[in-house]
Design a protein that fits this description.
alpha+beta; 60s Ribosomal Protein L30, Chain: A; 5-stranded mixed sheet; two-stranded antiparallel ribbon; 29% helix; binds zinc ion
């Protein structure tokens, strides 16, 4: 039995949407909170950090190498596609995900109000237990950003010889 841990991290600046009504993507869930994520893709920091944690655990190139932000095809791209690619590589390597633990730091939106929805959506992709906890930036200079830390545990091989 082989066990691997992977860590993923992502950060995006949040700005008021003004009148354009853009929603904020948080773990594949559209949140209308008057803020948008500044990014080349859809700016979903939760999806990006989960993708990187999985890729990192199995020793594959990170999300920025697989999907460069200089590629026009990645512009405004649905970040679920990044996670699907990571899952293809997880499955191809014969890995099973034990669990994924996510910490989201942002002042808005409040994670409490969307936690269940986000957990459920990510479970749909990775078919493993997901936990999310939300924290705020406590008034530090990072306010105005969404920051995400993820650890993922993966295993492969027989459970007994
Ligand atoms: Zn990102």
């Amino acid at each position: 039995m082989e066990t691997r841990i992977g860590h993923g991290y992502d950060l995006h600046r949040l700005e008021p949407t003004g009148d354009n009504g853009t929603s904020l993507m948080v773990g594949g869930v559209e949140v209308r909170c008057g803020l948008q994520s500044i990014a080349h893709s859809d700016g979903d920091a939760v999806m990006h950090a989960v993708t990187d944690a999985l890729l990192s655990a199995i020793g594959e190139p990170d999300i920025g190498s697989l999907f460069p932000d200089t590629e026009p095809e990645n512009e405004n791209r649905d970040s679920g596609e990044f996670l699907l690619e990571a899952m293809d590589r997880v499955n191809a390597g014969g890995w099973a995900i034990c669990n994924v633990d996510i910490t989201v730091l942002c002042d808005q939106p409040k994670m409490n109000s969307i936690r269940e929805q986000v957990c459920e959506n990510i479970r749909r992709y990775i078919v493993a237990p997901v936990n999310i906890k939300g924290k705020t930036h406590e008034g530090t200079d990072s306010s105005g950003a969404i920051e995400v830390h993820v650890v993922a545990l993966l295993q492969k091989g027989k459970t007994h010889e």
